[in-house]
């Protein structure tokens, strides 16, 4: 591990884990994403004309932290893989195959901690878009596994959902979560306009990502909570209660059009 990465990891363990234990917070998706990015940086391997980075990540979480994601773990893993691909492209790194992320329960990992095992693996026959080996013309050498490849990414649809909004005065209303997501705040350019002085003008937004719905706090003054836990970014599930100021928003499945 490079010296700077080792120092960063030391301070990370020094400050993050004790505070997480003290406040009993759950691991957030953005924390896992940052650890994957660090593992990618740490595992860089220079070649003749490019920088090769890991594409296979196994994320070890405490069983309680993994359970907190409930049935959204598969969608979260796919979303993290997409983010890893975007990170590699943004830094002009090369991959042997599309990134893959697996989340595993590991009782040896302390609560609120994350351990990422990263490695470079060859292209998978069912994912790469290059010509299958059986169709490779005779006399042609196999492709260089360190070469940059282009992959076709699937685009799963975002689930149809509605937000049941309860204002501070007790009145309720429903807002459909469209394919473009929704924005939440006091300003009139939001999709969900909050009649609540404790809500920021632009408080947060819900977006679709790899077939899941993600809530993002966009820097609000008073913060956001989901099911009583303070969050910055979190995968939402049916029945989750989002609290912004004194306004409550409950995610429910939208009825199929007749």
Describe the structure.
The structure is a single chain. By secondary structure, this protein is an alpha+beta fold. The chain is built from four helices and 16 strands. The protein has helices at residues 3-23, 29-42, 63-67, 73-90, and strands spanning 45-46, 51-52, 56-61, 100-105, 114-119, 161-166, 172-177, 182-185, 192-193, 204-209, 212-217, 224-226, 229-231, 233-236, 241-244, 247-253. The longest helix is centred in the N-terminal third of the chain and has 21 residues, at 3-23. The chain starts with a helix and ends in a 5-residue tail after the last strand. The model is unreliable at 1-24, 124-143 and 145-156 (pLDDT under 50).
Features:
alpha+beta, 5-stranded mixed sheet, elongated, disordered N terminus, 6-stranded antiparallel sheet, 16 strands, 258 residues, 22% helix, 4 helices
List the helices and strands and how they pair.
Blueprint: H1 3-23, H2 29-42, E1 45-46, E2 51-52, E3 56-61, H3 63-67, H4 73-90, E4 100-105, E5 114-119, E6 161-166, E7 172-177, E8 182-185, E9 192-193, E10 204-209, E11 212-217, E12 224-226, E13 229-231, E14 233-236, E15 241-244, E16 247-253
Parallel strand pairs: 3-4, 8-9
Antiparallel strand pairs: 1-2, 3-5, 6-7, 6-16, 8-10, 10-11, 11-14, 12-13, 12-15, 15-16
Helix pairs in contact: 2-4
């Amino acid at each position: 591990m490079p010296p700077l990465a080792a120092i960063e990891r030391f301070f990370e363990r020094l400050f993050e884990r004790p505070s997480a234990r003290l406040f009993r917070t759950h691991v957030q998706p953005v924390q896992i994403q940052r650890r994957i990015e660090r593992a990618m940086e740490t595992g860089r391997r220079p070649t003749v004309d490019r920088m090769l980075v890991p594409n296979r990540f196994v994320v070890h979480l405490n069983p309680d932290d993994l359970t907190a994601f409930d049935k959204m773990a598969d969608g979260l893993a796919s979303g993290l893989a997409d983010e890893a691909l975007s990170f590699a492209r943004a830094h002009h790194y090369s991959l042997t195959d599309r990134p893959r992320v697996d989340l595993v329960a590991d009782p040896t990992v302390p609560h609120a901690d994350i351990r990422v095992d990263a490695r470079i693996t060859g292209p998978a026959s069912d994912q790469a878009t290059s010509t299958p080996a059986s169709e490779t013309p005779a006399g042609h050498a196999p492709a260089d596994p360190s070469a940059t490849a282009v992959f076709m990414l699937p685009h799963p649809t975002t689930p149809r959902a509605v937000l049941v909004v309860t204002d501070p005065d007790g009145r309720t209303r429903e807002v459909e979560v469209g394919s473009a997501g929704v924005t939440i705040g006091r300003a009139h350019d939001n999709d969900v306009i909050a009649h609540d002085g404790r809500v920021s003008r632009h408080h947060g937004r819900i977006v679709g990502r790899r077939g899941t719905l993600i809530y993002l706090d966009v820097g609000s003054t008073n913060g956001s909570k989901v099911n009583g836990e303070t969050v910055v970014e979190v995968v939402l599930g049916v029945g989750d209660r989002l609290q912004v100021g004194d306004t409550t928003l409950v995610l429910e499945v939208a009825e199929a059009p007749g």
